Amino acid sequence: MGKKLLIVLMLTCIAPAAMAQGCSLCTKTAGELDDKSAKGLNSGILYLAALPLTILGTVGFVWWKNNRGTEEEL
Length: 74
Description:
Elements: H1 2-31, H2 35-73
């Protein structure tokens, strides 16, 4: 159990550092764009974020709905 927890913590700390260069590249690119292209980039980011957020929201709602019935029984 301890080794698994340590591995998960190490991977959690390493992953953001490995992906951080993408943020600086997007910022640099977005700074050089005109207004129409910047709006397109923002729309693309929202489009890519919509599906994971929808899935996460649905799972959270189902979890909340199922736990709400359990609390009323106690």
